[in-house]
Amino acid sequence: xxxxxxxxxxxxxxxxxxxxxxxxxxxxxxxxxxxxxxxxxxxxxxxxxxxxxxxxxxxxxxxxxxxxxxxxxxxxxxxxxxxxxxxxxxxxxxxxxxxxxxxxxxxxxxxxxxxxxxxxxxxxxxxxxxxxxxxxxxxxxxxxxxxxxxxxxxxxxxxxxxxxxxxxxxxxxxxxxxxxxxxxxxxxxxxxxxxxxxxxxxxxxxxxxxxxxxxxxxxxxxxxxxxxxxxxxxxxxxxxxxxxxxxxxxxxxxxxxxxxxxxxxxxxxxxxxxxxxxxxxxxxxxxxxxxxxxxxxxxxxxxxxxxxxxxxx
Length: 313
Description:
Helices cover about 40% and strands about 15% of the residues. By secondary structure, the protein is an alpha/beta fold. The protein folds into two domains: about 1-125, no CATH class; about 150-313. It is globular.
């Protein structure tokens, strides 16, 4: 993994997109490319025009490298002190604050410390890395000001296949263990099941297991999202599955590379999630994040007949 340092400008920024999702009004990001190397990642599509990629001579859709800003905590404390309007900050929105390169610079811990040092700010942590447990000593000082979520993308029996498409992230069992530890210590938690890929984590049985897991760690909210089809993520995911001996799962990914296929997959996913949440938890706690632009008109009509728990974006 090649790690590049790049100085960013913003510290704490307003995020209308994540505010619409119900996640946070503010965002913090500690880099431009995460070292977890998830094949389906859509960050490259979102940030492809950023001048950093041209300056560093890097392909925004490539893997095998990370871009991090070690000075992120300094930028955050600057803004945390200056801003009069304060609220919930998402740590992070485009990269992972506990990815390997972030750990190298101890960025997640430093960001958490400086945010909580200023009154009026609260933090929503989202990560795929169990290293966040090393910062439980910080969270337990003011547990009401921190919401913890691990991105859990499959059930434990799919850990091996997930390691193929999320090569540098913590294993699924490790992520679940962190959430259970957080609950046992009285921390606030939320469920983040994103993305739930077809052929891997979208069946009724697998979703029921995931919702049961969220119930076990008493998630305040449950966020679910289909895979983002933007960029080259689906193609890379399909190829990684083929290369590692998962032809059936690769075929399921290929099926959603068309609008019709993605729309049908998303519609089934919504139905399965709603059913499990209603059966096991509270539909009012569901936040299914849905962009309608990739749905067919027929599926939009079908979904709107019962859109409980859906956040239309």
